[in-house]
Amino acid sequence: MTQLLDVRPLKSRVGDFIAGLKALEKEPITTARVSDIVAQMQPSAEALAPYLLWNQERYARNLIYRDDCFEVIALCWLPGQRTPIHSHNGQLGWVTVVQGELVCRNYQFVRSRVEKKAPVSCSCLAGAVRPVEVKLLSSATCQADGTVAVVDRRQTTHQIENLEKSRHGSVSLHVYSKPIDSCVLFDETSRCCERRQLQYYSANGVILGETPPLTYAQLTDTAA
Questions:
Q1: How far apart (Å, rounded) are the C-alpha atoms in residues 19 and 49?
Q2: CA 138 to each of CA 58, 77, 81, 162, 200: distance values in angstroms, whole numbers, following the listed order
Q3: Domain range annotation of the chain
């Protein structure tokens, strides 16, 4: 007997969502197929509540699921928190906002001219030492309206920031294929880039560090 998924659009249980992604692993994974799953089955903030943990110091990367093909993460953002400008190693990614709103800025790394008196250098993708700058290509505000943004091999360098003033915090759901363990980020102070290992704040709802988290319930209970 064929097992049927309990699908409730935009309010699907997390298990249904993961099952939908895993079903795609039987055939070649394409941008369109994953986009459809994320758009049709993305869990609500309430369904994601066990995984939603905030960090007062920086945005929180909360791992929900990971295998050889997919990585599913809920990112929790307090007002003013943002990522560095970073790349995705050419991997495919799908992002949707499930609570609040976020600003996404797309950039391009460009080689800068070397100053004779004060050269600036950094280690980048291939280990080469070179000065770099970034060029802003576009900026957009993403809201919790079910829209799915795709990060592909042509557009992989961006920055995400929570500019909203709500005390509820913003939540975004990220799906990557394949999982991303490191990325190249741009340091706006030194004007150079470096490869950095990525870390999770929590996995399966369990904090991995020592910093006490703020839970989804605590934020919603105290919000004015």
A1: 19
A2: 24, 21, 20, 16, 28
A3: 14-199
Peptide bond between residue 178 and the one before it cis (omega within 30 degrees of 0): yes
| Two structure tokens written together for 209 | 């560090």
In order of 23, 113, 157, the CA distances from 85 in angstroms are 33, 20, 7
List pLDDT tens digits, range 112-165.
544 433 333 344 444 444 567 888 888 989 999 999 988 876 666 888 999 887
DSSP assignment of 13-35:
-HHHHHHHHHHGGGS---HHHHH
Locate 28 and state its tokens: 């070649």
What CATH number belongs to 14-199?
2.60.120.10
Given this model, what pLDDT does residue 163 score? 87
Token pair of 25 as six digits: 């692993």
